[in-house]
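User: I need a structural model of ABM domain-containing protein from Clonostachys rhizophaga for a docking pre-check later this week. Nothing fancy, just the predicted C-alpha cells so I can convert them on my end. Input:
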Amino acid sequence: MAPIELAAVITPKPGQAEKFLALFDKCVQYVQANEPYVLRYELHKGIKELNGNEQFVVLEKYESKEAMDKHMQAPPIQEMVNILGEGNLADTQVIMTTKGPGIPSRL
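Assistant: Understood. Predicted C-alpha cells for ABM domain-containing protein:
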C-alpha cells in the first residue's frame, strides 16, 4: 500500500503554545522509541511576526494507512488528540495529502 502523508495546522489559543509543544514532545519521544513505521513526524513553527499569530505545522508520513491507524491509537497520541478535541488548547486543521505537480525535494 502507498504511504500516507498529512499536514496538521495547529493554531494555539492565547497562552497555550507551550502546553501544545509539551504534548507534542511526548508524542515525538514515543514515536522515536516505538514506531519505525512512522517515516516523518516533524513540527515547523510559523513565523509569528510574518503570519500574525502563533502557528505550528506538523508534517507526518506513514508506511501505510494501517501504520497511521496504529499510530493514532498510541497512548500519548490519544492524549493529545483528546486534549485538542476539547477545543481549549488550539484550533486544528488536518489535511491528508498526495503528491501533485511540482519539483521533488532536492534535499
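Before docking, keep this in mind: The domain at 4-97 is CATH 3.30.70.100 (Alpha-Beta Plaits).
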